[in-house]
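Here is one chain, start to finish.
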Amino acid sequence: MTDIDSAPAAPRPTPSAADFETVRSSPQFQELRTRLRRFVFPMTAVFLLWYLAYVLLGAYAHDFMATKVFGDINTGLLLGLAQFVSTFVITGLYVRFAGRQLDPRAAALRDRLEGGRA
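Its structure:
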C-alpha cells in the first residue's frame, strides 16, 4: 500500500442553508418523505393495535390467556413471545424497505446537496 492509496479524500464543501432549503422543497425530497410515511405510519398503527389487543386480552380475558397450549405453556406466553417476533419482523421489513426505497433516494439527494448542485 502506498501513500497515494491511503490519502484522505478531499472534503466536500459544506452546503449553505439556502442549499438545504432548495433540497427540502424539491420534488425528490417530498417523494422520499412520502415513501417513508407510507411505510412508517401504517406499520406503527398495526403494531400499536396488536400491542393494545395483547394488553387488553391480558387485562380482561384471563381465562383465554391462561389456556394451556402444551405443558406449562399458555396462550398468554405465546402471544407475549409473538410481540417480540413481530418487533423483529417489522424491523427486518423496515431495513429491507429502507435499503431498497429510501437509501438510494437519500444518497442521491445527499450527493446533489454536497456536490453543490442544489
